[in-house]
């Protein structure tokens, strides 16, 4: 066997990537994980994971992901701390170019590149990124101790962020464009319970028009609510309106949906439109997008890759 050609390269080090690596090691595929710009993936910024089976102690996301990584490495996973910048799936031996310039040649690829935070798309939001606008409360919440902040969004991520910030900030506004929430009921109830104290305020049926600042930092948001415009004075805005699949580098190589999610199910559950290329986790999922479902897809992708190689 040509030593330069790998059996399996796994792109991404979230729950899908590490789980794929664990299964690929146990099948003797000697996988290489390219860990990407965010080692451990999206979960690493979240303070509490309450739904990982077997962990009723609700670990923080960073430690949970470290334990997955340690497991994968202990079984023999090779890790490249780099990012894939180009993919060529035009022949049986696939080529992946890393940002260092190194080219990996491999018989199978498991794409588990997850998703990246979406922003509102306002000019003023761009202007104040890092000056009061953030998409990660665990990373930046510290700067808002005893200050007033808003979280934009109505999904589980927005509620996780708002609950976390409610322990740090003086006041948290939850700004959402509808009245109904996508977030899990248990989280909605927890945040709702803080409203009586005045620490949390829901601003519903509301659209953020502009983030206002003094040039150096955020000072307010302008919100359109029920036909009128309201200005809320605050120090920080946390945008938690969902994520977009991180698949731009694959768009000319495999079939994607319009929103960038990878199409799978070509012959096996995780098979993409190109034979030997599999996808798992948030990059190929527009329904479930949970840590445990991503891990499950990672397992399936490794088993599918093994079957493909045996053939
Ligand atoms: P990700 O975790 O997104 O990981 C993607 C990986 O791909 C990263 O390592 C990244 O560096 C890498 N990558 C990207 N591009 C490249 C590239 N070009 N080259 C190499 N590597 C690349 N789910 C739960 O079940 N429970 C929770 O409590 C929970 N809390 C959450 C809290 C927040 C704030 C957020 C945002 C999400 C939460 N989720 C939770 C959802 C969960 O994080 C995701 O479903 C899960 O992380 C998806 O795993 P993944 O492996 O598919 O991708
Ligand atoms: P999400 O569930 O897609 O929710 C996104 C929210 O942002 C929705 O309320 C949406 O409003 C709003 N939104 C979207 N675009 C907007 C825009 N342009 N302007 C204003 N509001 C906008 O995303 P998420 O909360 O990031 O969660 C992603 C996945 O991770 C989900 O599957 C979730 O279950 C999972 N997750 C789980 C946990 C957990 O602890 N179990 C924690 C975090 C995330 P509409 O409702 O009106 O569409």
Task: Give a topology summary.
Layout: E1 5-11, H1 15-26, E2 32-34, H2 61-74, E3 78-80, E4 84-88, E5 94-98, E6 103-111, E7 115-117, H3 123-127, E8 133-134, H4 137-140, E9 148-152, H5 156-166, E10 171-175, H6 185-192, E11 200-203, E12 206-213, E13 218-225, E14 228-233, E15 236-239, E16 243-245, E17 277-279, H7 291-310
Parallel strand pairs: 1-2, 1-6, 2-3, 6-17, 8-15, 9-10, 9-15, 10-11
Antiparallel strand pairs: 4-5, 5-6, 7-16, 12-13, 13-14
Helix pairs in contact: 1-2, 1-7, 5-6
This protein binds flavin-adenine dinucleotide and NADP nicotinamide-adenine-dinucleotide phosphate (NAP).
Structure write-up:
The chain has 311 residues and is an alpha/beta fold. The protein has 2 domains: 5-116 and 243-310, FAD/NAD(P)-binding domain (3-Layer(bba) Sandwich); 119-239, FAD/NAD(P)-binding domain (3-Layer(bba) Sandwich). The protein has helices spanning 15-26, 61-74, 123-127, 137-140, 156-166, 185-192, 291-310; strands at residues 5-11, 32-34, 78-80, 84-88, 94-98, 103-111, 115-117, 133-134, 148-152, 171-175, 200-203, 206-213, 218-225, 228-233, 236-239, 243-245, 277-279. A hairpin with a 4-residue loop joins strand 5 (94-98) and strand 6 (103-111). NADP nicotinamide-adenine-dinucleotide phosphate (NAP) binds next to helix 5.
